[in-house]
Amino acid sequence: MAVTKIKESALKHAEEINWSPDHIKNGRFGKWLEGARDWSISRQRFWASVIPIWKCECGEMVVTGSIDELRAKSIQKITKLIFVRHGESEKNVLGVLSNTHDKWPLTEKGKEDAEHVKNKINDKVDLIIASPILRARETADIINAKMNVPIEYDNLIAEQDYGLWNDKPMDHLQKFDKDYQEYQKNKHDVETRFNYKFGKMGESRQDIIKRIEKFLLETVKKYPGKTILIVSHGGINAAIHRLLHGSSTAEYLMREEIDHRKVDEFYLDWSGKPFDLHKDVVDQITLECPKCGLEVRRIPDVLDTWFDSGSMPFAQLHYPFDNREKFDKIAPADYIAEYQDQCRAWFYYLHIISSAVTGKIAFKNAVVSGTILAEDGRKMSKRLKNYPDPNEMIDKYGADALRFYLTTSPVMQAENLNFKESELAELYRGIFRMLWNSYSFFVLYANIDKWSAQEKPGVSSNILDRWIISLLGQLTNEVNDGMESYNLVKASRAFVPFVDNLSNWYIRRSRKRFWKTENDDDKVNAYQTLYTVLVQLSKLMAPFTPFIAEEIYKNLTGSISVHLEDFPKEGQGAVDSELNNEMSETRKVVELGLSSRAGAGIKVRQPLQSLTYHGKQLNRELEAIVAEEVNVKMVQYGAGDPNTIDLDLRMTDELKSEGLAREIIRTTQELRKNAGFKVEDRIHVHYKTEDNLLDKVMVEMADLIRREVLAYDVISSDQPLEKSGEYSIESGKIWLSIGR
């Protein structure tokens, strides 16, 4: 193939292709294309597509471009069968089983079906062989108005014999015929259905196979090399496919309902066997030399397999000889994907052949991956057993986790990946556990409160609600941007920080809104916001993690499937960039405050007096969040280094008491958990302590303790309830007992 003649055009068209990653364009692919040379497409092998050239001793060569062209030139006789099913008949509309010859004529639609098929067939037909059943005869007559050829009727291709079910509606049989009911019980057992005798006295599908086999042999023997139109029934089409193409039993059953307007073509060789274009068959074909009259044989060479691969888009439609309009609608392909070595193989050959045949690109976008290697950097090897069993990985972590691990990895940027189970496990424990816990948290409290989603929810004024909705809009834009540019890594990696923000900031900061007993607007807004986020997040994640997205979406919405929903569009949801930045600054201040606490060895449960931050000033709502997170009484702004904060570490008796109260709350919550109480259970708390400070805290901080642990009361009493325990808190000991 003279590649150098089209090289300049191929280079020009290559500029239109989008690559992911983009460095492939002028790198691995572009450099290879620049060095393109002429291509020898012939090979001395057996299993490959034959080169359709017959060469005579006199030097004359004959090239064929299709089976029909080969039939016309072949000395051996190749018979062509064109199959059509009869048009729609009255029995099809009424759901009747019938092989009666003179009943159930075509409907008006059935006549239109026949007219459609008549205009669809352009072959020069020598003969029509039709089923003697009325609907097939009528169809054959309509088609023959165009062809004007002899018609034969053959009982071998008649409708299957339905026995005692003949001329009975299927709904009637289903109600009253035990034999038919038994047959229908085997709806999913294809082999039993295949061998079932219809109506006790009728045929099985195996019987039909036998008579069609006889029909094919007789037809080839009687009409060798002819083009014959077969007008028959769906079951006959299924039987021919079974005999000539080896179709499965399941496919056989589907083909019984072949469309009334479909046209099938079959080729039979001189012995009645299916004719195909494999080397062992084509090499038996000889032609007559048009120059000297000698019998000529095909040259022994076959095509380079890459020529096959590169020709696929055109060859499947026999373009440019046929289907030009259909091809123009589907070409070029929107995208293809393969690993990096295909830059000088499949990607290259597709582009070269398309440049030669169409003068256009073969594909608009290409996703190029790297190679997955073993953890030690060597190739994965069954002999070395240097990789974990993929089935075990899926059983252990789930298909979603494995899929997401790969789409977020360097392998999707045309780089090599050393597969590490530890990284997969970390991903599973990270984003997947956080996502599922977020979903479980919502379901738990929504069921407790019997909350249901609102059709037209209002807009929440809560700053956390506004922030997470804004972040969801930003995520939607980022995912769409990555997907539209075929950058799967960019799109998939955007989920990790979002799910972290959802779980470790939004839900953690909003827990008390779900816990509180009164169903006020703030609580309703919290439910609606989390519901909205989880539903849209499941839609966004569906292409990346199809199973967990399906589970969450179906359970929340009651819909059939998330995969049947429209993908969220870019711009679908307002993005408040200023709020997003302010919340990021808030989290930064919190991180600095917690780091300062840790450096001083002071637990977060111990309140402190104040924190002073620098940089950009936050509003009151965000400062309140900082105060709660760092557990300080006051947050104030001051000039200074934005990367530092000032934390007042001085301790007062009041602060010390509240810190002890927080320890008691934590201990009581652990006791609740160990007792197996439900999160919504309200409890009684009894305590006893000899420590004066702890006793003082239990009295003075009783309201705080009662509110935080959902208690009716906090009473000094040594009467045990359902679950009890003695605990050391700071320097003292306290006995606690709880019950519902």
- Give the name of the CATH architecture of the largest domain: 3-Layer(aba) Sandwich
Quaternary organisation of the protein chains: single chain
Mean residue pLDDT: 92
- CATH topology-level name of the largest domain: Rossmann fold
**Helix-residue proportion:** 40-55%
CATH class of the largest domain: Alpha Beta
Q: In terms of structural class, how would the helical and strand content be classed?
A: alpha/beta
Give unreliable regions as ranges. none
Total individual domains? 4
Folded structure, characterized:
The mean pLDDT is 92. With 740 residues, the protein is an alpha/beta fold. The chain has four domains: 79-268, 3-Layer(aba) Sandwich (Rossmann fold); 401-575, Isoleucyl-tRNA Synthetase, Domain 1 (Orthogonal Bundle); 579-647, no CATH class; 653-739. It is built from 30 helices and 25 strands. A five-stranded mixed sheet has the order 8-7-10-5-11. Helices cover 48% and strands 15% of the residues.
